[in-house]
Amino acid sequence: MFLDNVLERNPELIHTAFALHREGMIPPNCFVIDMDAVMENASMLQHAAAKNGLALYFTTKQIGFNPLLAKSIVQAGIPKAIAIDVHEISVLSRHNIPIGHVGHLVQIPSQMIGSILRLEPEVVTIYGVEKARQFSEKAVQEGRRVRFLLRVISEEDSLFPGQEGGFCLLNLLKEASQILRLPNVQIAGVTSFPCLEVDESSQALKPTLNFHTILRAAQILQDKLGIAVEQINAPGNTCVAAMTILAQMGATHGEPGHALTGTTYLHAHSHQPEKPAVVYVSEVSHLYGNQAYVFGGGTYRRAKTNRALVGSKPDKLERAQVLPLDPTAIDYYVSLALPPGHKVSVGDTVILASRVQIFVSRSYVAVVRGIQQGHASLVGLFDCWGRPVEVATDAYAADPVGS
Length: 403
What we know:
Elements: H1 3-9, H2 11-22, E1 30-34, H3 35-51, E2 55-59, H4 67-76, E3 80-83, H5 86-94, E4 99-102, H6 113-117, E5 123-126, H7 129-142, E6 146-153, E7 167-168, H8 172-180, E8 185-191, E9 196-199, E10 204-207, H9 209-225, E11 231-233, H10 243-249, E12 253-254, H11 265-269, E13 278-288, E14 291-295, E15 307-311, E16 318-322, E17 333-337, E18 349-352, E19 364-369, E20 377-382
Parallel strand pairs: 1-19, 2-3, 2-12, 3-4, 4-5, 5-6, 6-7, 6-8, 8-11
Antiparallel strand pairs: 1-13, 9-10, 13-14, 13-18, 14-17, 15-16, 15-18, 16-17, 19-20
Helix pairs in contact: 1-2, 3-4, 8-9
């Protein structure tokens, strides 16, 4: 989906990724991320947000909870992260990354509420009154206060499969009133996801019905209950192009994720300010029939990856079609259809570019700096959950990288 974009706007990333694999510095099934491009994107996002009176929380799930990249994003100007689930919370807190928002898209498990409160996030998203009660009880025990974002939905809203849940708009007044009677809690605002989507016909961002729902919810909380709504948090395709829309609609917060690597759906079809900053590198394992089988582990079905570069020399990379993985299959391999007359050999390097959700893969992550200055260096090699790793290859150093 993004291969042509990377070739046009960050070809140095492809050259670097290719060289790292050929030299044995990175293994197959490895995402290579351009740290400088991520920082540049983060800086642009923060500038655009500030210009429009918005605040940002960044997410690291797409980049594998990576601590080096998280610190670089903070350094570039986005001060706090959103942690999608408790695994992300654990990695970020362990590396002293400031956490602004937790509990969305995944609720905080009951037995972990105390440890989350001790991290003092700015806001916690909840889906119902019972979770509010659990937080209230623990907050009283801990002598702390907690500020909630209510995830509000209506019947017309569109939620991704497996992400259903929240306060029904029709019941919001009653249930919010119940929360207000709980000790040591405050309703700070509302949220949903996704709040912006790419219109297929115009290839432009537009607000979703979800966005309109939380705007109505904020009005109810303010007019009926006298709540000073501090946050209308509207994540989904948060990128430079989204900032004006978010501000005009009345949002206060956005949450960039894919924009940090230039891989929102908007970036797939149009030229955007953010530079593409990630590619996936693997290797041909074997040939069978008219297909090349490539070491897998990082494919993400929703990314719709359809093309690859393959070869053993940087100036002779061939294009190949990426075949879709059967839904019943484990992605041990990625299959490439070989065009007639194209020679591919075992051990050839394969490069793909697509949307990423590294935290649900079993891939490596190589963080590289200096690509844009012409002196690339590998500064860390990690697993998909941000932990430094060693990889035994002939040319690879024995000491852990990034520790």
